[in-house]
Specification:
The chain has one domain: Maltoporin, Chain A. The protein has seven helices and 36 strands. The strands form six sheets. It has a 22-stranded antiparallel beta barrel.
Length: about 700
């Protein structure tokens, strides 16, 4: 049960939510405050281009318009209002991304979620996604598929994220420059140029950080293009290079937090602290990819996506200095047949995805940020293969049935060259079959009922079979899970939203542990049961174009009960304990107002509930209440030149406020404090002209 204080704060919102849903229920926030037809939002989940009412998947949308509600510095605030989705930033540049609790085993970065960028795999063969290498302006759209997507996308029980970088106006060329400033030394610059089908964007961001030893800097350039090849072919190219560095302050304990929340991890008599060791991440990441689609006939289409990545990675840490040189290659082939058989429309999708990566890893003693005596020399090669097939049929124009199946195999090959003796080992995860069945029934053209049953799997990632201290943990088993979900949604002129209820069971769950030096390792922790309820709704008021303003009121939220099942630590049985890091209740409420003459105001209130910080459920954080606001003024100065001025602020009320906790941390160093007050301002100018 929720605490009384939470009920008092959120009771009115829940009452409003239920009342509106009884009257008219909805699915997802739309792109603007004006009325939209259903066909204007295309959902690309599971290789099926359809509208938000007819999709068989539960999808959260993050679009250019929804990003405008928040400061253009990070995706964190925008993503965290999507029900069931959480993005953390323990220190500037240190991202974690979770769908329905998939951060259960995330030491840093992203685990258990598969990313694609313009149809090209962005998550590598080892399960890592370099999201923090991307500049904020490099991506204009995210479609977040919730729940296992292994029937079509391979490894990952949490979900799938489809990133898109597309020109926003196909009829215009554009040159644009923006700059931003904020507290704690924040600065950003973004330059973009769109000429015909070619788009180039460069971004720079830096900040000193709120905590000691938490500065970051990133320079990233992105190139993309989409052009026709002949009469039936379409070629999309994507390239990027990013140079990122950020200091890692590390976790502190409660007494240190209460004394000075801005502290970095402190030195002890036996272990030096983060500042003494100059703990940081340095990564130079490059990617080149292409996606070629060819229409073979009226019903058959083939597409091929290929990519190549390199990563020069260094991590001076408390216990060691880790150096990695990584190379990745892979591709995805899809055959698709769309046919009409009488009154039945079918979409048959089959193909395969193959990925390979090599990581040359070396560990040294860390002597104040400088590599010293060599500890290890190791290579790991990773290979993944997923073969899939899916049939979707639309019956009676309003009933969509989807059935998909994939066969998956992956292998780690490990070689140790130092310390001697030479070691050559491997671990194979083979013969994993993952089905998905889903139904969607459209009722009266505005209502929809959805039900799905899906299976997912996730082998341990590269950083789990070979953690930062070195070695090969070949005894780790792949996670496997089953998800059952039902939902109802409604979309009409001014309403938009819905409710989803799901139950997900995970076997062989992988969880993180740390030793005294803070070095992490991972263990399988039995079973989990993850039950949840998600909702979101919005209502557009005063949508008549002749009125001086229009506004939207929206709400989204999540209730969960995630527990361990059949889980022991040594002799202690923790079955029935709540999974740490996942709040029982969270909600977001927003008001978006658009005035005439280009003025807009966006206000958001978010409540995050408390949760446990360790598996034993003996330490708990405090809930928080966050208010964010952004005001902007857009102005066209003639037919070519335009500008935008904006200001954003953030205020948090919480006993302890973190944008990411270190769960099950050794020495109770759970806390990575974040500022409770923040402020940003920015200006953008641009020039548009018509394409010939």
């Amino acid at each position: 049960m929720f605490q009384l204080s939470i009920m008092q704060k959120s009771g009115l919102l829940i009452f409003l939510l239920i009342s509106v849903l009884i009257h008219k229920t909805v699915f997802a926030q739309t792109d603007s405050l004006t009325s939209k037809t259903l066909d204007e939002v295309t959902i690309n989940a599971f290789e099926s281009k359809t509208n938000a009412l007819s999709t068989t998947a539960t999808v959260g949308l993050l679009t250019t318009k929804s990003l405008e509600r928040y400061s253009p510095t990070t995706w964190t605030n925008a993503i965290n209002v999507i029900a069931g989705v959480r993005m953390e930033e323990r220190s500037p540049g240190s991202y974690r991304f979770s769908i329905r609790g998939s951060m259960l085993r995330s030491p840093f970065g992203i685990r258990n979620v598969k990313f694609y960028w313009n149809g090209i795999p962005f998550t590598d063969a080892g399960g890592n996604t370099p999201l923090n290498s991307l500049d904020f302006n490099a991506v204009q759209n995210m479609q977040i598929i919730k729940g296992p997507g292994s029937s079509l996308y391979g490894a990952g029980t949490g979900g799938v994220v489809l990133l898109q970088s597309r020109t926003s106006n196909n009829a215009q060329n554009r040159a644009e420059q923006s700059v931003g400033f904020g507290k704690y030394g924040f600065q950003s610059r973004s330059t973009s140029l769109e000429l015909g089908d070619i788009s180039i964007q460069y971004g720079h961001s830096e900040q000193d950080g709120y905590r000691d030893h938490s500065a970051m800097g990133r320079d990233a350039i992105r190139f993309s293009s989409t052009s026709k090849i002949g009469e039936k072919g379409m070629l999309s190219l994507l390239g990027m290079y990013s140079d990122l560095h950020y200091q890692t302050p590390g976790g502190i304990n409660l007494a240190q937090y209460q004394n000075n929340p801005r502290l970095a991890r402190q030195s002890t008599q036996t272990v030096p602290g983060s500042e003494a060791q100059k703990a940081a991440i340095y990564t130079k990441f490059a990617m080149l990819g292409g996606n070629y689609s060819l229409r073979l006939s009226d019903s058959w289409t083939q597409s091929n996506a290929l990519y190549l990545t390199t990563n020069d990675f260094a991590n001076p840490f408390i216990a060691n200095y880790e150096k990695r040189d990584e190379l990745g290659i892979g591709g995805r082939n899809i055959w698709q047949n769309i046919s009409q058989i009488g009154s039945v429309r079918t979409n048959w999708t089959s193909g395969f995805e193959w990925q390979y990566s090599k990581s040359a890893q070396r560990n040294y003693d860390n002597k104040g940020g400088i590599p010293d005596k060599q500890q290890t020399v190791e290579d790991i090669r990773t290979t993944n293969l997923s073969v899939f097939s899916q049939l979707e049929a639309v019956l009676f124009t309003d009933l969509t049935v989807t059935a998909g199946l994939s066969y998956n195999t992956s292998r780690y090959r490990y070689e140790r060259f130092f310390l001697l003796p030479y070691t050559n080992e491997q671990r194979t995860f083979d013969g994993i079959v993952t089905p998905r069945i889903a139904l969607n029934k459209v009722i009266a053209k505005t209502w929809a009922l959805t039900a799905s049953y899906s299976s997912g799997f996730s082998p341990p990632t590269l950083q789990e079979v070979r953690p930062s201290a070195g070695g090969f943990y070949k005894d780790l088993n792949a996670e496997k899970g089953m998800n059952t979900e039902i939902g109802i949604r409604k979309i009409d002129k001014n309403f938009n939203g819905g409710i989803s209820l799901y139950s997900f069971g995970l076997r062989q769950a992988i969880v993180r542990r740390t030793d005294e030096a803070g070095a992490e390792y991972f263990v399988n922790a039995g079973k989990t049961r993850q039950n949840g309820l998600e909702w979101n709704l919005s209502y557009d008021f005063l949508t008549n174009a002749h009125l001086p303003l229009t506004f939207r009121l929206w709400n989204s939220g999540t209730w969960t009960k995630y527990t361990f099942e059949d889980f022991k630590q040594a002799e202690t049985d923790l079955s029935g304990k709540l999974i740490p890091g996942v709040p029982r209740f969270s909600q977001s409420t927003g008001l978006d107002i658009l005035f005439k003459y280009g003025f807009s105001v966006f206000a958001t209130y978010q409540h995050g509930g408390s949760f446990y910080l360790n598996d034993a459920n003996t330490v708990k954080n405090t809930p928080y209440n966050q208010w964010t606001a952004r005001a902007s003024w857009k102005k066209n100065w003639g037919s070519h030149f335009y500008s935008e001025l904006s200001a954003s602020l953030e205020k948090v009320n919480a006993g302890i406020y973190n944008l990411g906790y270190d769960l099950n941390a050794f020495g109770n160093r759970y806390y990575n404090s974040a500022p409770k007050n923040n402020l940003w301002a920015g200006v953008k100018v641009g020039w548009e002209w018509g394409r010939k």
